[in-house]
User: Fold this.
Amino acid sequence: MGIPWLGWTCGKCRFCRAGRENLCEEARFTGYTLDGGYAEFSLADERFCFPLPGFYSDAEAVPLLCAGLTGYRSLVKAGDAKRLGIYRFGAAAHIVAQVARHQGRQVYAFTRPGDSEAQQFACKLGAFWAGDSNQLPPERLDSAIIFAPVGPLVVQALRALEKGGVVVCGDIHMRRYSFVSLRIVMERTDDLFRREPGTA
Assistant:
């Protein structure tokens, strides 16, 4: 049985009722607000446990429960992007890169500036291009996923996008950033400030 990061939600709020439990105001998280994670034994809510196939060892299954779930959810939110940028190439990113390549996408890996080892690793996993996070890719991206709590990467990812592209912030939290270049946002996304008919 696998216990993921999201360990409990109220089940009653509008987010829970809409299948968006990760946004529940009362959510509890394994190893953070719930005991567990590295424990030998743990008590868990069965609603948030996953049966694991017997052929996986613990070492093989654990990455799928944290980095794998976070990464895959971010990949789904990124849509069907052909050119996918991944910012900060760590645990979730290396799993997502392999899934994206299997889906036939071009992966553009962005690492900390000067981290040639991570860039080589990304290329070894099939990245079409790898470079520093302060660089622009050789062509515009359809979507980008950010796996780092670094606010300025949001603006950098927006600069790398094709018009109408998507940026997914896949980290647990994001440090503050300022939209000094709000024009970039306006140019890259055509519906950011649109409201649905009938909304205030």
Summary: Confidence is low (pLDDT under 50) at residues 190-200. The chain is about 30% helix and 20% strand. The longest strand covers residues 161-169. The beta strands are 6-8, 28-29, 83-87, 106-111, 129-132, 141-146, 161-169.
